[in-house]
Amino acid sequence: MRLICSTFFKALIAFGCILTLQANASAQQSEFSPYSRFGFGLINQVNTPVATGLAGMETGLANSYQFNPGNPASATFLTQTTLQGSGIISNLAMRQGNGDEAVATYGTAGPMGIVVKRKNGKNALILGVSSYSNSGYAISRTSDVEGIGVVEERYIGAGGLSNANLGWARVFRSTSFVPAGDADSIRVSNRSLHVGVQTQYLFGQVSRTSTLDIIDPTFLDHRARVTAQHRSLSTDIGVILDQLLFVRYNANREFKNSMALRIGGAYTPESALSSDIYSLDETTQTLGGVPVNLDTSAFSSLPNFQGRMPQSLNGALSLHYDRSDGMRWAAALEYSSTAWGDVDDEMAPELLSDGVSWVDAKTMRFGFHFNLGNSEQRNPTWGKAVYRLGLAKGNQPFKIDENPMAYKMASAGATIPLVGSRSLSRIHFGMEFGTRSVEGDGFEESIYRINLGVSLMPFFKNNWLVPRLYD
After folding, report:
1. In a 3-state reduction of DSSP, which class is residue 46?
2. 457, 80 contact by CB (below 8 A)
3. Following DSSP, what letter does each residue of 53-106 receive, concatenated?
4. Residue 326 — very low, low, confident or very high, per pLDDT cuts 50/70/90?
5. Which positions ≥6 away from 189 have C-beta within 8 Å?
6. What is the pLDDT of residues 226-251, one digit of tens each?
7. From the CB of residue 275, how many other CB atoms can be counted at a distance below 10 Å?
8. CA 362 → CA 337, 407, 408, distances in Å?
């Protein structure tokens, strides 16, 4: 008991450090997309490296070396205690019709967390933090208005929201006998049910500022600012059923091949959202390039505004094939939906710009990963790697003039052993390329993202939760 408590406190200290690092990273990161000015910003754009290589898949292809913060049931697939983190570099190219084009490159931290689990145990404790949304843009436009002169418009946004997770997961297994030759049999695990529950705390701040600057000093200028701080506590429930379809052994009780079917899902019910929203309209005068407040045109304060966060549902179906020489592959289809349209009336109107409204976010994903065969002949690093591909198509949770913002994504990635660690630690790589656009607005974004991370597991002589034989 003392050993478990000591390990739990170690995990809490690690989680505190992770939370501090993630909060600092969230304060610095941005999407650099003008679309991020809506609502909470662009949502769910940051994944783990493994999920990045699978086009953001959360449920369909859970593995033994990295857990997914979006589905707590994935924690019990890990073989032992795992600490993970990653860093992301993104390149965003923005085009307006056939004219202007802008390019931005920026970095951010990926999801970080720790799962405390005895080696090959049934229970797992989850501690983690990840980015939920990002908002960051700086747009300016200059025009010549008759009777007024040169007018400069500026739109600036910043901030984002983060998630902190604390959860628990457990796996339930059953076994059966399968034939091995004509007169023998072997007991195998034929079914496993992975169940996870976690508390999710959403927090952060998003702000936007618009300025109208008339160069002629005889005219006054205008500035509007909206700042929103959000807090929400909700629950995530994850379930993954792994069912063995067949397994074959030869007469010498040697494994030949097997196939399994996996069905999984995650559900988050509606939850309360508490927001502090402040809106300020000012009449200003620019003096020496600095806007000075002359008068307050309007001020709105909505402290502790009670809204609702939407329910979300994720479901996946996958097939997994293994062969005796180590070759394996898996393919999955996954669908996720978040009912933002159901909470449209619960949200403060100050969160959205004119002409923008909430709409259900929906995504369809396909993922495929595989390992090479012939383990005796393959390279000890690249030959033991896991390679993955992914495709995704969906939309963000808002629409502009009744047209939703759609995106398409293609991705690839790999996981390789951390050579020299003498443990099961691994390095993960994921990259994705996609486009985002709204029909009819003439604006399109192309985004390229590289995600590099690591999963650290204890050396076999330093496993946590293993009772010592001596003091």
Report:
1. coil
2. yes
3. HTTT-SSTT--SS---TT-GGGGGGSSS-EEEEEEEEEEEEEEETTS-EEEEEE
4. confident
5. 173, 174, 175, 244
6. 999 999 999 999 999 999 999 999 88
7. 21
8. 4, 11, 12
Whether pLDDT at 105 is above 70: yes
Q: Record the pTM.
A: 0.85
pLDDT band at 216 (very low <50, low <70, confident <90, very high): confident
CB 463 within 8 A of CB 452: no
Report the alpha-carbon distance of residue 92 to residue 103 in Å, rounded: 6
Q: How many residues does the chain have?
A: 471
SS3 37: helix
Distance CA 241, CA 76 (A): 12
- Domains of the chain (ranges; CATH) run 2-218+231-272+312-462 (2.40.160)
User: Counting Cβ atoms within 10 Å, is residue 255 exposed (0-12), middle (13-18) or buried (19+)?
Assistant: middle
Q: What is the mean predicted confidence (pLDDT) over 445-457?
A: 93
Instruction: Quote the Cα angle for 340-231-38, to 5°.
Output: 45
In the prediction, which pLDDT does 376 show? 61
For the chain, how long is the longest CA-to-CA vector? 99
Which range among 27-41, 79-93, 138-152, 208-222 shows the weakest confidence by mean pLDDT?
Answer: 27-41
Pairwise CA distance, residues 259 & 263, whole Å: 14
Fill in the amino acid letter for 232.
Answer: S
In the block, tokens 């997770």 appear at 165
DSSP string, 356-418: EEE--EEEEEEEEEEE-S-TTTS-TTGGG-EEEEEEEEEEEEEEETTEEEEEEEEEEEEEEE-
Cα dist. 256→181, 246, 247, 273, 328 in Å?
A: 12, 11, 8, 53, 12
Band the pLDDT of 88: cuts 50, 70, 90.
very high
Confidence tier at 448 by pLDDT (50, 70, 90): very high
Please name every residue paired with 454 in a beta bridge, in sequence order, or none if there are none: 85, 427
Cα–Cα–Cα angle for 345, 349, 354, nearest 5°? 115
